Amino acid sequence: MNKLRPVGVIGTGKYVPEKILTNKDLEAMVETSDEWIVSRTGIQERHIAAPEQATSDLAYEAAIKALKSAGMTAEDLDLIIVATVTPDMAFPSTACILQDKLGAKGAAAFDLSAACSGFVYGLATATSFIKTGIYNNALIIGADCLSRITDYTDRNTCVLFGDGAGAVVIGEVPEGRGFQSFDLGAEGAGGSLLNLAAGGSRLPASADTLENKQHYIYMNGREVFKFAVRVMGTATVDVLEKAGLSKDDIDLFVPHQANIRIIQSAMQRLDLPEEKVVINVNKYANTSAASIPLALVEAAEEGRMKEGDRILMVGFGGGLTWGASVLVW
Ligand code: ACO
Question: Which residues form the Beta-ketoacyl-[acyl-carrier-protein] synthase III C-terminal domain (predicted)?
């Protein structure tokens, strides 16, 4: 058998829609306050897609930047994975819509549903294809338009979410660099804590599902919070162990941006100073699958990592799912 190839990030791009929804704006929509939102979540504003923009449009903007930064054209791609819980439609997949828009002729394309962990799941999937020599170059995008499934009359959820897309091109990298380990997992028993109940085969869209607001995100915030704190800890330990590293080896921590308090609890557990942690939940809120790539790409654009730095990504989300990875930049 051929030796497994080292695989890493060779291009990055991100996109957020222009429109910004601030906490002040939300104060006029539901009974909430900037003070409550900032102190409980760390969120100050979020970006919201324009009416004519769908998830594939956000993904496209991020993708063309990632291809440019990799020095590639769409025709160089063998595989496109779009991690999302807000596809343009049930089918065709958002990845296929994007493949056509990019002109990535012949590339395999599929969507991946693992909510906020989707981007890391996508990285693990594409890395396996490239390591084994099946494909050479893959585009992995986390993209979501959560505003389309958010009930803006429900203060429990509407302050938490935003729209955006982050993309990476991955391919073979020099020995010693690239993805060192992955830790993916799920607890399906917790699925009902965070879901969108209707519009699938269980509860097709009907007057009743509309009336019952079952086309919006439902979340048991407290239980998801507990799950998040727990798995951020366990996944981090597991993924570091698989990479043969300890927490002191981490140069940059890129956590899922759902709530500043969840990020702070992970920082405490890992004993990480703020300069080693990427935090942008204040600007973008929780963008689900886009959250980790938006943070990773923004850190790269700000010059926060240098060659050889060890980056730890960790996310959790609906499913319930989690995903973590150690990447040498
Ligand atoms: N403004 C003012 N008050 C509010 C608001 C708001 N926007 N939202 C809720 N409250 C109220 C509640 O009604 C509740 O009032 P009550 O005690 O009278 O019932 C009170 O604030 C406290 O509610 P808690 O649930 O205890 O608030 P908590 O401190 O737990 O924060 C939060 C809630 C922010 C949702 C938190 O639980 C959280 O972040 N959970 C995790 C969410 C998450 O990470 N989701 C990720 C996955 S998303 C995905 O996969 C798409």
Answer: 240-329
Give the CATH superfamily of 7-176: Thiolase/Chalcone synthase (3.40.47.10)
CA distance 123 to 81: 9
107 class by beta-carbon count within 10 Å (0-12 exposed, 13-18 middle, 19+ buried): buried
**7-176 with 179-328: one CATH topology?**
yes
Q: 156 C-alpha to center of ligand 1: Å? A: 5
Which residues are designated catalytic? 116, 256, 286
320 lines ligand 1 (CB under 6 A): no
Q: What average pLDDT does the structure give for the chain?
A: 97
In the chain, domain spans? 7-176, 179-328
Token pair in block for residue 29: 């929509």
* pLDDT tens-digit series, residues 23-33: 999 999 999 99
| pLDDT (tens digit per residue) in 53-86 | 999 999 999 999 999 999 999 999 999 999 999 9
Which atom of ligand 1 is nearest to 41's Cα? 34
41 lines ligand 1 (CB under 6 A): yes
The span from the CA of 184 to the CA of 243, in Å, is: 14
Reading the block at residue 193, the tokens are 């804590």
CATH code at 179-328: 3.40.47.10
Place of tokens 């080693």: 276
Which of these, 296, 295, 297, lies nearest to 284 by C-alpha position?
Answer: 295
Pull the structure tokens for residue 317: 């989300």
Buried b (16+ CB within 10 A) or exposed e, 280-305: bbebbbbbbbbbbbbbbbbbbeeebb
Atom of ligand 1 nearest to the CA of 155: 7
Which residues lie closer than 8 Å to 38 by C-beta, 6 or more apart?
23, 44
Is 225 a pocket residue for ligand 1 (Cβ < 6 Å)?
yes
